[in-house]
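Reviewers of the previous submission asked for a worked example of the structure-prediction workflow described in the proposal, so we include one complete record here. The input consisted solely of the amino acid sequence. No template or homolog information was supplied to the procedure at any stage.
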Amino acid sequence: MELNGVEIEDTFCEAFGGFFTRILITAKNEKWARIAAQISTGYGTSTIHCDAEAGIDVLIPSEKTPDNRPGIVVMFFKTKKDEMSNVVMNRLGQCVLTCPTTACFDALGGSLVPDKEFEIKIGANLKFFGDGFQEKIEGKFPFEAWKIPVMDGEFVVQSVAKVGKGIAGGNFLIIGSDQDSTLEAAEKSIEAISDIPNVIAPFPGGIARSGSKVGSKYSFLNASTNDPLCPTLRDNIENSELREGDNCVYEIILDGASEESIKAAMKLGIEAAVKVPGINRISAGNYGGKLGKFQYSLHDVLK
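From that input alone, the workflow returned the following structure tokens.
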């Protein structure tokens, strides 16, 4: 299969289930909402070592937020449900409560398995920072919320946030002739994906340059560089997956609330990438079906 003259390999990406929460951060203006969103999702690329996979989802205009201020939705993903509460509390408490003019609310609109959604306390716990001066907000919102006195006024936060079941690790590989064109294609992919709700690309700028394989020659590591996709090793190893002229690979890794959001992001991202000159082909990362039960054929996604 070809798209815009670029080969689309007959392969699939392999993803796995996880738990996620979706939080809306609002602020005086988009600048401060974005700052809080960026800080709260930092160090959130991979659950291999980070406490969560985290990223910015979409912008929300002021007319669609509970407090009529501009907002940004962030998402946090974990494989262990009992760790969600601590992760979200730590990130909101350290990065949103502390940020000028912000407020935060639950924004989970749905998930892969709705009957397995559950709640975690956010404002119901953060309120204690008010040291007895916190107040429950009455009549303003269709949900329970608290206002906590802080030095620039009040921090408003919803009492609870929902946690849903989602999908982590959806991906595709952009294989190009040089670093400049391949990076441009990856950037175009992320731009195309940015307005799709309920999906994030948690790596820096949405792009992963250090794709990993399971295991290592060193017993203390559970993941290591994906040597079959490293251009500098092509002529030095027997299992290289790169062809002559393949000199750069970037991976777009996606976490989403549903299969629909993952597949929509893959489709738009790939379609954007192949428009850039210098892209040789599009592939995907999998472990032969051994990693996760969610498998998405590139050919099917693009139909």
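Residues 28 and 101 are 6 Å apart (CA to CA). We consider this example representative of the routine output the project will generate in years two and three.
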